[in-house]
Design goal:
By secondary structure, this protein is mostly beta strands. It contains two helices and eleven strands. Strands 3-4-5-11-6-9 form a six-stranded antiparallel beta sheet, with no helix packed on it. Strands 8-7-10 form a three-stranded antiparallel beta sheet. The protein has a two-stranded antiparallel ribbon with strand order 1-2. The termini are far apart. It has one domain (about 15-145): Sandwich (Jelly Rolls), CATH 2.60.120.10. The longest helix has 7 residues, at about 130-135. Strand 7 (about 80) and strand 8 (about 85-90) form a beta hairpin. Bound molecules: manganese (II) ion. Manganese (II) ion (MN) binds near residues 63, 65, 69, 103 and 126.
Length: about 150
Amino acid sequence: MSVPMHRGQREPFVWEGGEVLAYKESDGTFRSVTRQVLSDAEHGQGTSLRYFEVGPGGHTTLEHHEHTHVVVPIRGRGSALVVDRIVPLALHDVVFVPSWGWHQFRAADDEPLGFLCAVTVERDRPVLPTEEDLGELRRDPAIAAFIRV
Ligand code: MN
């Protein structure tokens, strides 16, 4: 298969030449999330660019890992836990998730949250929090109120 040089939007936030996938095998740690892979190893950058969309009231998995993320919201509104802060997300903000930083993205209750997320092609698997990790995270009341597991 040749590498595409242009992928137009087939409809808003759905790009040609790919599939809209379930975020992960359902493990109960996320709610209402889809994923599209926009670029990957074949584009030769060593990075993969994905578009995730979280439905209203939904959230991604609370996780951490060695690899990092660069995230740019392009649809809707929401907020995120990034390491030890709850960050409000507006369109075209830029969020950096550092190595081993806890993170979880949540859509607003009445709007989806769609974001581009860049990662390295070679990357480790996400690690979920232990009960001990959750205890530590919940020592901050704002984080305790925010996280969904
Ligand atoms: Mn992650």
